[in-house]
Amino acid sequence: AQSVAQPEDQVNVAEGNPLTVKCTYSVSGNPYLFWYVQYPNRGLQFLLKYITGDNLVKGSYGFEAEFNKSQTSFHLKKPSALVSDSALYFCAVRLHSGNTPLVFGKGTRLSVIA
Amino acid sequence: GAGVSQSPSNKVTEKGKDVELRCDPISGHTALYWYRQRLGQGLEFLIYFQGNSAPDKSGLPSDRFSAERTGESVSTLTIQRTQQEDSAVYLCASSLARTGTPWTEAFFGQGTRLTVV
Question: Does B41 touch chain A (CB under 8 A)?
Answer without folding.
Answer: yes
